[in-house]
């Protein structure tokens, strides 16, 4: 029964629903094990406060990771997301500081449009130039950051320059659930629907799975690639506003190196870096796993000098565990 | 079995290494050059920081009085690689003086040594580099005074009792580490025996990392009464973290603040007081020291004096250290009087 999954294209991009459940089940088990582990290590971990913090913490990563996943689906990559978040964070915060009466909705809209424009630049370059996307976006990583530095100079926008309503985006809760987490879930939910239930979504995976035959079947792959980058830029714009709201200080180095955090979440979430494979649900779990690890280690009061190394080790263990578990489940699925 | 060749080879290698070292050593101090004919490379920790913009203002003040060609260049965010690149470009431009506020005191040393070998004079300001890699260090105030001034604000606000944590800048920053050592030494005094330092963490002068470090500290230590933030970004982040977690009323945050863009923290009462000095005067003094150094008026020996414009005559102390003055404790009552010292130009 599982022999049918590598023959015809673009069909292989459509994972069997059973296999998809397995993939996410493995990650789900990893998440539960980690939560249980940290809960026994430190009693402070298993509290509503901690889960609210984890939810807030993973939101910005998840929003950008959803975009990154779309790009990876098409067998491309966007390493400029950190710079895009930084630039839009700076522009959104400056706009709010300069025009205090501006409705927040408008700020968010402007930031998303700016982000989408930056993403469109990436998308147009990747789709038209026959240059690997990692090179194109490495270039724009520096260009966007350079523009940010030139605009910001030595200025810093601090929480004092921003209206209280701005930070309220990050601190607000609904029934104890952080607003930021709800935004992130909404973004992920929408992306999930598009990927699973629309032709565009399935075509994205098909493009990444086998570009040549996708082209032959009449899929406009260039347009899809352009679209994936533009959506990623838009999500970076949203993340930029949230970044300023959450961390208060916005300068020219916001979100430096953030692309690696995002990539980690996406890859831990089971999205294949060579395209065509992955689910949005996996990305949600990937972001959650990383956030549980960093929050748990911080609560366990691990020395800051060891924190990163231990974090890396736990990530590797988690991925290995997921992989072993998944292979087991898959082999059982085949034998029955 | 004897292998006479090996000994000879080692000897030759050692000799070669020695001559190589000798060639790299400056053959004596470079000839004096008046600052008017000089270009000076002044490297801040990071340029995305209003504090260093105010330092630059002071340097430009002095440059107007003394002449010379100033390039104030540094990495946007504080990274050591970016600083080393600026040292190398200063060296290639043949700068008379390379001045640096070091992100990492030892990592920049080899590049500075190479620049010295090429005839540049090296000074450090604001944050020192390893001994031997610079001729002068222009210090804003002694580490002892700065450490005590910050600690006293915290101790008073905590009523001399309770747990506190530190959110610092980089773990490699020698100056901040020096203050922290002073603070830890204070804890041995009977007066402060009720205070306990639970953890020192590092936010690398990055808003997100500092915020995350402050949140981790507050959550891991529910009885925390205070956060010492000996760098403005960490102070801002710690105030925000305490507010976001709803513990601002029981956790006091203080340390090093920048009145240039953090006067509001004092006026709203979120921070009772914080410490700094005049960055503008520091830039001004650094330029004057650099000018006297390159002109050959001073060599970095203890006891030498030089004229520093509006700041009067300054004396070089032990270890080639020029101390500008005393730290200033800013409160909501006095902060407005100092805003001139934090002006930024361009």
From TrEMBL, chain A:
Function, as annotated, reads:
Part of the ABC transporter complex LsrABCD involved in autoinducer 2 (AI-2) import. Probably responsible for the translocation of the substrate across the membrane.
- Pfam families documented for this protein: BPD_transp_2
Q: Keywords on this record?
A: Cell inner membrane, Cell membrane, Membrane, Transmembrane, Transmembrane helix, Transport
An example of a Gene Ontology cellular component annotation for this protein is: plasma membrane
Q: How does it assemble?
A: The complex is composed of two ATP-binding proteins (LsrA), two transmembrane proteins (LsrC and LsrD) and a solute-binding protein (LsrB).
Q: How does it sit in the membrane?
A: Multi-pass membrane protein
Q: Which source organism does the UniProt entry give?
A: Pseudonocardia ammonioxydans
**PANTHER family under this entry?**
ABC TRANSPORTER PERMEASE PROTEIN YPHD-RELATED-RELATED (PTHR32196), AUTOINDUCER 2 IMPORT SYSTEM PERMEASE PROTEIN LSRC (PTHR32196:SF29)
Q: Where in the cell is it found?
A: Cell membrane
The Gene Ontology terms for molecular function here are: transmembrane transporter activity
Please give the name of this protein.
Autoinducer 2 import system permease protein LsrC
**Which parts of the chain span the membrane according to its record?**
25-45, 51-72, 79-98, 104-127, 134-154, 166-195, 224-243, 255-273, 280-299, 305-325
Superkingdom field: Bacteria
From TrEMBL, chain B:
GO cellular component labels = outer membrane-bounded periplasmic space
Q: Does the keyword Signal apply?
A: yes
Q: Which PROSITE patterns does UniProt cross-reference here?
A: PROKAR_LIPOPROTEIN (PS51257)
GO molecular function terms noted in the UniProt entry: carbohydrate binding
Query: Per its UniProt record, what InterPro entries does this chain match?
Result: Bact_Solute-Bind_Prot2, Peripla_BP_I, SBP_2_dom
- Signal is among the record's keywords: yes
Q: According to its UniProt record, what is one Pfam family this protein matches? A: Peripla_BP_4
Q: Can you give the residue ranges of the Periplasmic binding protein domain? A: 42-297
Q: Which residues form the signal peptide?
A: 1-22
Q: Which UniProt keywords apply?
A: Signal
- Broad class of the protein's primary localization: other
**Could you tell me where this protein is found in the cell?**
Cell envelope
PANTHER family (UniProt xref): ABC-TYPE SUGAR TRANSPORT SYSTEM PERIPLASMIC COMPONENT-LIKE PROTEIN (PTHR30036:SF8), D-XYLOSE-BINDING PERIPLASMIC PROTEIN (PTHR30036)
Can you name this protein? Monosaccharide ABC transporter substrate-binding protein, CUT2 family
Q: What organism is this sequence from?
A: Pseudonocardia ammonioxydans
């Amino acid at each position: 029964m599982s022999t049918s999954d590598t023959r015809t294209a673009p069909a292989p991009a459509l994972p069997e629903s059973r296999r998809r459940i397995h993939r996410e089940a493995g990650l789900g088990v990893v998440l539960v094990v980690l939560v249980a582990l940290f809960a026994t290590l430190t009693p402070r971990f298993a509290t509503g406060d901690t889960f609210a913090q984890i939810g807030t913490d993973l939101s910005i990563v998840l929003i950008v990771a959803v975009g990154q996943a779309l790009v990876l689906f098409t067998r491309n990559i966007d390493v400029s997301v950190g710079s895009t978040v930084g630039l839009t964070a700076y522009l959104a915060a400056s706009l709010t500081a300069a025009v205090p009466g501006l409705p927040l909705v408008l700020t968010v809209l402007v930031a998303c449009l700016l982000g989408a424009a930056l993403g469109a630049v990436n998308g147009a370059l990747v789709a038209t130039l026959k240059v690997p996307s990692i090179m194109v976006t490495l270039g724009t990583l520096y260009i966007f950051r350079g523009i940010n530095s030139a605009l910001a100079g030595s200025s810093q926008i601090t929480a004092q320059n921003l209206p209280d309503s701005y930070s309220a985006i990050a601190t607000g809760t609904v029934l104890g659930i952080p607003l930021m987490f709800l935004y992130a879930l909404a973004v992920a939910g929408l992306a999930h629907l598009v990927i699973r239930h629309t032709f565009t979504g399935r075509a994205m995976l098909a493009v990444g799975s086998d570009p040549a035959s996708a082209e032959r079947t009449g899929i406009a792959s260039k347009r899809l690639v352009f679209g994936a980058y533009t959506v990623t830029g838009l999500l970076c714009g949203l993340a930029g506003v949230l970044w300023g709201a959450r961390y208060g200080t916005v300068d020219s180095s916001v979100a430096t190196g953030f692309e690696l955090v995002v990539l980690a979440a996406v890859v831990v979430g089971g999205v294949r870096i060579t395209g065509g494979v992955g689910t949005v649900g996996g990305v949600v779990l990937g972001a959650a796993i990383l956030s549980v690890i960093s929050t748990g280690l911080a609560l366990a009061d691990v020395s800051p000098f060891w924190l990163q190394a231990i974090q890396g080790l736990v990530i590797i263990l988690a991925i290995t565990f997921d992989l072993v578990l998944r292979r087991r489940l898959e082999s059982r699925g085949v034998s029955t | 079995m004897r292998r006479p060749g090996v000994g000879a080879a080692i000897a030759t290698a050692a000799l070669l290494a020695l001559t190589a070292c000798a060639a790299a050593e400056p053959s004596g101090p470079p000839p004096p050059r008046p600052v008017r004919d000089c270009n000076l490379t002044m490297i801040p920790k990071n340029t995305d920081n209003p504090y260093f913009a105010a330092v630059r203002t002071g340097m430009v003040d002095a440059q107007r009085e003394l002449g010379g060609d100033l390039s104030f260049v540094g990495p946007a965010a504080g990274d050591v690689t970016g600083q080393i690149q600026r040292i190398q470009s200063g060296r290639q431009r043949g700068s008379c003086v390379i001045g640096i506020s070091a992100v990492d005191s030892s990592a920049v040393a080899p590049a500075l040594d190479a620049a010295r070998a090429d005839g540049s004079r090296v000074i450090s300001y604001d944050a020192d580099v390893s001994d031997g890699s610079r001729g002068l260090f222009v210090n804003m105030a002694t580490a002892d005074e700065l450490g005590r001034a910050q600690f006293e604000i915290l101790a008073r606000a905590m009523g001399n009792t309770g747990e506190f944590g530190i959110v610092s800048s980089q773990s490699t920053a020698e100056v901040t580490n020096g203050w922290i050592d002073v603070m830890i030494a204070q804890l041995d005094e009977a007066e402060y025996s009720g205070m306990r330092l639970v953890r020192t963490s590092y936010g690398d002068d990055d808003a997100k990392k500092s915020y995350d470090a402050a949140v981790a500290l507050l959550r891991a230590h529910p009885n925390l009464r205070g956060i010492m933030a000996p760098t403005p970004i960490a102070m801002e982040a710690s105030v925000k973290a305490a507010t976001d977690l709803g513990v601002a009323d029981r956790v006091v945050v203080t340390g090093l603040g920048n009145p240039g863009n953090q006067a509001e923290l004092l006026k709203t009462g979120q921070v009772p007081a914080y410490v700094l000095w005049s960055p503008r005067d520091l830039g001004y003094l650094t330029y004057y020291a650099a000018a006297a150094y390159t002109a050959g008026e001073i060599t970095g020996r203890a006891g030498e004096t030089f004229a520093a414009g509006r700041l009067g005559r300054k004396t070089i102390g032990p270890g080639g250290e020029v101390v500008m003055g005393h730290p200033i404790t800013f409160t909501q009552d006095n902060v407005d009087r100092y805003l001139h010292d934090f002006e930024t130009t361009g």
